Amino acid sequence: MMGDNRDHSADSRFHRSDEFGGTVPVDAVIGRARAVVLPPARWGLIH
After folding, report:
1. Which residues make beta-bridge pairs with 21?
2. Which residues, if any, are the signal sequence (predicted)?
3. Contact 26, 20 (CB under 8 A)
4. 45 in helix, strand or coil?
């Protein structure tokens, strides 16, 4: 994930050596995915 302040933040590649290897633990995720937009060949809603 990339922060809104891109000049002063880092994406997940910067955090690969962290405890979770650059990923977000499932219990820290808030919300649900509603659609797939990338890659374009997989565009669609998630039911």
Report:
1. none
2. none
3. no
4. strand
